[in-house]
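Contributing new records

If you add data, match the layout below exactly. Sequence lines come first and carry their own label; structure lines follow with theirs. Keep one chain per record. Anything else will be rejected by the validation script.
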Amino acid sequence: MQEEMWTLFPFLTTDYKAAEVWLNQKAAQGWQYTSKTTLWGYLFRLRRTERTDLRYCVDISGGKKDQDYRNFLNQAGWGWEGTVRGMDIFSSLPGADPVPIQTDTGLERQRFGRCYFWSTWLWGLAATLLVMALIVRFYYLISPTDLPLFFLSMLSSWWDLLRLALLPIFLVSVLWELTALPLYYFRSRRDGLPDPDPRRAWRRGVAEFAVSMLIKLIIILPLILSFLPDSEYTYTQSEREELRDQPVIMAEEVGLDYAGYAMDSVHTGTPLVNRWEYLELVDCDSTWSLFLYTRRYHCLWEGLAVRAARALMEDEPFTPVELGFDESWIFRPDPPDDYSVLVLREGNTAVRLEGPLDWTDETVRGILKEKFE
């Protein structure tokens, strides 16, 4: 016969009475709570017992200030087993036949509000306001024109995409915590505490457990990812020759003199967005070297590429130009010089090119066709 087992204990603190019913059901089946838990109290270890008089009572925990209260209950025949997620678990002492801990529903509701609701809800509200302030501050630092490209870059990274997918779950769970707990509390003040149905409470708890694990994953995800290889690949200067077959423009390809590696080439991608970024220095007639820059997004669907092309134009006054692509725009600074910026879209691909040359030149157009069609 199995002497010990681990079992899920997903009950919410608001369902502490359902947790009591569940523990008493386990006691009737010959299982005893061992005070050993894992996963923040979501997993219980039970062991076999020969006791037939074992009963459990679960109450809202008041923390260390409840020590006198626990001593009183011990004298009344209840032994304190431990505290799990805001719930004190008591078991009947051998040979004792103690009365239930709470018999007055009004006092029970008062204890629930005093020991758990106000402290938990106010802490959750403060934490939520802090998180929202940090999010607002983060997006405040990003100009509105940079936001589309910021999200495109996130969609091109597996890790950022995962964080982006988990964020709505986190926000919904926080919203649920901030609304469900007050509704429960004020409804109990009006109608009394709900009937403890362990099956419904179990399902609610399992849903909360799953969301809780996701939230904890969001918190520890950056630490985990720091030990894993990133989906982003960087070409260094020593690997420059390998870039000739990639969708970036290099100095020699458009008749310019290469003057140095300005930045490592970045390539990262997911099925949603594949991103290339490359910047190098080129010599020209001016007294200093200028940049030759490529930024390319290949998107899963054309509508996203259309939005990417609009974002790549930012606030500069681009002019539509016909170069044989689905869409293309050119920007020449005022006063005019050799430096110009081209944004083009071909199907699901959007590209921004900058450099000291005429992007509309027929020879250059042939290179662009070869690279980006």
